[in-house]
Amino acid sequence: MNRKEQTEKFALNALGYVVAIIGVLFLLSILVSCTKEDDITIPDNYTLELDGRLDTTTDGVYKLELNSTQNSIQTIHRITGKLLNNGEEPYPQLVEWESSHNWTLNDTAYVIVRRTINALGNWVIIDTSYVTGFNGIDVPTINEFSYSGTEGEINTVIAPIDNMIGDTLIVKARFEDLQKTIRIILE
Questions:
Q1: With 80 as the cut, is the pLDDT of residue 178 above it?
Q2: Are 14 and 72 within one domain?
Q3: pTM value?
Q4: Rounded to an integer, what distance in angstroms lies between the CA atom of residue 109 and that of residue 130?
Q5: Whether residue 149 sits in one domain with residue 59
Q6: In which domain, by residue range, is 14 found?
């Protein structure tokens, strides 16, 4: 047998081994991947809970004491809750939030005051700027969207203003066809 015939015979044998190995791997992958567990899907069963993180009345209505400062007319408060799927943390999901109240900006939205410390160590105003042109713009009292996080925790922030004292703020959270509502008396 000459060298050319030996090379052709070797190539055919190697090709036969490669085809045989690929065939065995293919059959093994088919046998291993065909299990009954692969055919079972667990349906989604979402649950939604809210927590106002405040004291409540005997009727279960939350109470928030508004405490504006010289620098802000808003009282900022976080509302939390849980979004679970079959009792477990879901992949991060978008939750929509809505509140019953909003308020309207006046023409001057911000006053920016720049200060410095003089040689005697006292604060001195060096410049005042007014940011205007916002008259009539509606401001929601809630962050309208959030995503579920670790262990299904959901959060939003409300920011009612002093003019709302005595009102009851209604907060709704929605995910797909689930909706939960809490009420907060603004004191």
A1: yes
A2: no
A3: 0.70
A4: 8
A5: yes
A6: 3-39
